[in-house]
Queue: 3 jobs
Job 1
Amino acid sequence: MSFYRAAVAVLALLFVGIGVALLAVTAAHGGGVLGFLLGGMFIALGVGRLTLLRRGG
Amino acid sequence: MPSRRRRQVELERVLGTPALFATAYGNVGSSIYYALGLTAVYALGLTPLVFVAAGIIFAATAATYAEGTVRFPEAGGSSSFARHAFNELVSFGAAWAQMLVYVVTVATSAFFVPHYLSIFWEPLRENPWDVVGGIVVIVVLVVLNIIGIQEAARLSITLAVIDFATQVLLVALGLVLVFSPEILVDNVHFGVAPTWGNLAIAVPVAMLAYTGVETVSNLAEEVRDPVKNVPDAYKLVRWAVFAIYFTLPLVALSALPVVEIGGELTTLLALPPEEGGYANDPILGVVQNLGLEGALLEALEIYVGLLAATILFIATNAGVIGASRITYAMATYRQIPEVFRRLHPRFKTPWLSIVLFAGVAPIAVILPGDVNFVGTLYSFGATLSFTIAHASLVRMRMTSPNEELLYRARPNLRVGAVDWPLFALFGGIATGVSFAVIVVQNPATRWAGLGWIAGGLLFYVAYRRRFVQAPLTETVKAPPAYGPALALEYRRLLVPVLSGRASDDALDIAAGLAAERGAQITAVYVVEIPLDLPLSADMPAEEALANRELDEARAIGESYGVTVIPRLVRARSAGAAIVREAERRATELIVIGAPRKDLTRGKRAIFGRTVDFVLKNASCRVLVTALKEDAA
């Protein structure tokens, strides 16, 4: 795996991790639209990039 | 022989994607240490959203720089793009704006070093000691750069990685300890805190956080495979900065919320230290408000303070190098007098440009001790420079719509014959509007910035009319600034590389010549792409072979003590690519190895097709070497 692909994978996973953390913390605080929205967007970005990477992008 | 050399020398692809990415992130990632506070002054509770808006503009700008740099892999960034798209006058405007950016980058980074060192001595957080500390940093770096220190690439890369890891750690700690969606919502008071006017100016100021986008462009001449390495590095930087810049402000505004202080809605991030705020050291402010206590807090403060000061010191140095490089490039194109690229007789560095543009000018900028002025002045220069870069890219797509590009950034929209670059159109409009906002909204910056541009243009007109005696729009390149025996002093050599003994032999001869004269060699391996494939097509086997041969070339150079810049070029025809690369690098001598051919009735050429083409078309001297063993 090239450096570029490995780095993209790591950064995409970081996005997913941040998203999960945002969702978890928001839930722990009793919810909130902003927290869930941000968490969902970070996860979507990370998963989207990983999917593109798997397709060779 | 070559394989023995390969074992002797430790090979490294110095400027591949990893090194480019680390260098660029080292620059861009350093900006958060001052941009967070400067942006919060204007954006208050909307700071996270403003960073997202500025980040989208940054993404468009990075795409423009990626395509432009692959198209013209030479130092200069927007100035170089403008030269090819418009003319020398526009190129000067871009270069002069970029110079302002470097001056302010040096000033800002140096000014914030003492703020983060205040963990050891409190007065360094405020005037006048931060000004004194900033001046000391600038003077030290100017002296070191005149003496000619070598930037330790490995150290810079290591620090960039540590910096990124630390920023991720702070985000993780912040998300767990202080992140609060309710506070972030409560922070926003539309139209009041921030006011609409301040919100408008906050976006261009937040672009300060993305200082360093041109770093990759400025290193383009030394990149091994620009078509792959440059876009990959830009894409990675984009993701890395988004990961931090879209999250750290969320943590910061959760830890330091907008509250009423002295009858005004504000955040401690936006207040100066004398009012108990953290505008001068925002990341330390975040650390101190994470809810940590005792020895852990103290250790984290010292760690973050020292790391930030070190990163900012290196960013200041990058600014000093950038200022001297752009000055050198401008003098080479006769935009400013020759004296600015004259080298110091002993240290061989452009001392005058370093003293003036990396020393005197940044010191003048930080003397008032006003961080907000410094921030908006940066935005003035950056938005102008970026707007010219975007406009240049759009114009190049318009004027040569059928040119086969090595790399085409996305997204695009095909209308008629032109593939319109939507990223550049969006980026150009966004940076243009940001520039207008800065000019309209901020009187001090307006007059200082416009004064800088007007003064530069007046000087340019006078210099070109009186001394160069050439039209303002004409590109005039100064001859290489070497000694009196110019004709026979080969300082820039180019060796086309292929597998085989003929090529190694040519490189041996070139390295011998270069070693005698302290010259530099560019080793060029041309990967010929068949007509039925795009120029950017993946050719794994050929690329692997090219990289092996270029490593070999570096090893041969090192065995002679000569610097060899490896360059992989993709083209349809090797001969044309070699001639073009030689012209672009102002090469004085091409040393090309050639197997001898038997002159039979059917073969009229002595050498191969490529060598013949180079001999016929190169605008510099060509030395053809043929192996002794091949003699009849």
Job 2
Amino acid sequence: MFDFDAGRYAIFVWPAYAVTGLVLAVLILDTLLRARRWRRAAEAAKTLRPEGDTPQ
Amino acid sequence: MFQALVNPDRFMAFSRWAAPLLGVIALVLAAAGLVLDFQAPPDYQQGYTVHIMFIHVPAAFMSEFVYACLGVASFLSLVFRHALATAAARAAAPLGAGFTLLALITGSLWGRPTWGTWWVWDPRLTSVLVLFLFYIGYMALEAAVEDEAKAARAAAILALVGLINLPIVHYSVVWWNSLHQGSSLLRAGGPAMPAVYLAPLLLMVFAYMAGFGALWLVRIRGEVWRRRAAVLAMRAVA
């Protein structure tokens, strides 16, 4: 079954997985937060536009 | 399909369902890859450090793949001045920088027990560091120039210059004497590893690719919204 033993190399293996998890989490969070911020900004700006104005 | 996606409205409609779908595919593939990873036996030479391969090799592959995407998007942005291509290039750079940083750090953590050193000015390691600096340079240039169109053009030129580095990264282990091992995945004659390592490695590579696809689409969507917000705000002021 699963073998989580990394023996004497644990001090290299687990930090590698921890850093990978951390960097991927930062990329995911940054992506989602930016997209949400700009979507809200676009929606807020829509309320300011003149009638019939549809930017591409 | 490409013709359809250059229209921002069509792209937004496509990416609305494609991004979450790719995200789910990435999670399923990564879960399957990790299950097989921690069922694989220790390598006869590298021992348990072989586990680092399943996260290092996909990150290293993605560092080159994302730069190729950045290069193509920059070329389209420069030649056709298409806003969506510019958004795609801007969106790819931070993701590529993240994958390259991961390749450098996990490579260092793999190098210490196998080579006996955290870092060496080896052709492969040095060219990947240069790749990371191209990503950082691209983002810094984009941020430094106030005029957005000029910033996009200058950054696109830098991205195209950086494409020269891609074959150097890939073939550095062939062209020069390198401490880094040769390619064991993308090589003539097929992959040089047993199925017990190849299966989880391929699953992780495809998981990283799907994950990049999902994040890239979401970031491009964010860029489209940002531009729309800016245009609407300017028109409201005018």
Job 3
Amino acid sequence: MPDLGKYAEAVLSAYAVSIVLLVAIVVLTVWRGRKVRAEMEAVERRSARNG
Amino acid sequence: MSLWEYANPVKFLRLSERVQPWLWWGAGICLVVGLVWGFFFTPDDFRQGSTVKIIYLHVPSALMAINAWFMMLVASLIWIVRRHHVSALAARAAAPVGIVMTLIALFTGAIWGQPMWGTWWAWDPRLTSFLILFLFYLGYVALWEAIEDPDTAADLTSILCLVGTVFAVLSRYAVLFWNQGLHQGASLSLDKEENVADVFYFPLLVCIGGFVLLFLALVLYRTGTEIRVRRTRALMARETRGAPLQAEEA
């Protein structure tokens, strides 16, 4: 760990906030993408069954 | 082969799924390498101390916040001129990513500004235009959510995007022509005298590459999701229309 001196709090909080936001957008994007894909496949199967 | 072929959702999805693994891996590698390099292996600045390490998050996110809006502008213009649904959906898909980039730029800017300027916030031209850009992003997403008909929503959000471009341009160039704020000049410049020192510049470039690749990966993935939402709605609408007919036949 580098010695961040008196600015340690500022630097670490900038990294923490940014990494949380980046991880959040990736997780939410993939989670919604999978949910939508599953819904679409279910509707496609139902449509194929009903002709 | 023409670029417009990819306005076809099936072709777009096929290409997008082929390209995405490269983008995700590239983004991950660049971000890890760039941030680890910048955080652990670069020296403190003689004036700003260790706060200079915030540059590896602040500059790439600010750059992407503005460029995301320009990408949305191009996609919106394609929608207005050529009525390709994929382009309208790509603009919609990019907006939340732009919001996150703007939020990171605003947060890291405030955190960096406090020890350097003695204040979290100042009504400086660049900071203010960035805040307005953030509000435009929120308004853009809200407008998409508020209008039920997707074509009308795409029309109105495209117009909003054109208007918001003024603030995206201001955010980008405010430090150049509005020489009266706290915010410093551009960190990256073609003029070597104005550029940050090489020891900060190279990890910064890697981080910028990581943010660009992450943005592209997210936008392609989210555009695919929007295309699937649209298809699901179309199938369900067809089912609903077909249901009374089936009831009559029975």
